Amino acid sequence: MITEEMVCIMCPLGCRLIVTKEDTGEIKVTGNKCPRGVEYGKQEMTEPLRILTSSVLVINGEIPLVSVKTTKPVPRRLINDIMKILKQTKVQAPIKAGEVIIENILNTGVDIVATRNVERI
């Protein structure tokens, strides 16, 4: 049996959850005040997901970097690998907010998109 304590971030209540994974594989969540806490606790225990925000280099842009983010949460275990890819990524200006910078990063089905405009100099 594995037990973890965590704070739920699914709503403003910030419930303190106790999540237990039984030897049978069953996951029990207590301490939640809404159903979203159960979903969050189970997800955190099995495969934690995160939205990733960062920046990539811009060539010929009015600013040297453009902020980017994932379109959906990605497995937390992949964040370091994704950051290595973003560190090596360079894009040509102009960039428009919402433009896909990297499609289907690491075969996750998640895109990396720009979060702001960067004009060309």
Which descriptors would you attach to this protein?
121 residues; alpha+beta; CPE0013-like fold; five-stranded mixed sheet; three-stranded antiparallel sheet; 10 strands; 35% strand
Written description of the protein model:
With 121 residues, the chain is α+β, with helices and mostly antiparallel strands. It folds into two domains: 2-46, no CATH class; 53-114, CPE0013-like fold (Roll), CATH 3.10.530.10. The protein has helices at 35-46, 79-88, and strands at 2-7, 16-21, 27-30, 49-50, 53-59, 65-70, 74-75, 90-92, 100-102, 112-114. The strands form three sheets. Strands 8-5-6-10-9 form a five-stranded mixed β-sheet. A three-stranded antiparallel β-sheet has the order 1-2-3, covered by helices on one side. The termini are far apart.
